[in-house]
Amino acid sequence: MIRPICKDPFLLSQKAKEMTEEDRELIRDLKDTLQFHSAHCLGMAANMIGVPKALIAFREGPLIKAILNGEILEKKGPYPAMEGCLSVSGSHSVTRYREIRVRYQDEGFSEHVQTFQGLTAQILQHELDHCKGVLV
Q1: Can you tell me the distance from the alpha carbon of 136 to that of 130, in angstroms, rounded to the nearest whole number?
Q2: In the annotation, is 127 catalytic?
Q3: Are 31 and 57 a contacting pair, CB within 8 Å?
Q4: Domain locations in the chain as residue ranges
């Protein structure tokens, strides 16, 4: 189900709660909403659709993938970036890292540790910040 984009700063600043098996339906809703906004959005966090859960979805090539309960373990290669967000107006200057190592669960709740680089790493950093209540 495509959900409306949340722009409420109070809700967006809340730290996300852990994803559980009972939250499975939220994964599809977030992926559907990202697909709907794919012309101008590469990633979304669940709080962007009004649900403070530790879930992000992101575009990687033609696929939309989900990361549950993600945590950045390591960052390498800081650089300045300008980012926008569907939930926050304007562009904002941020520091991002060229390479990150992330521990997360997939849609089947299996745990992984994976290294991401480049644009994918930047998207994940933005969305994982959302899960911590940090906005650009």
Answers
A1: 9
A2: yes
A3: yes
A4: 9-131
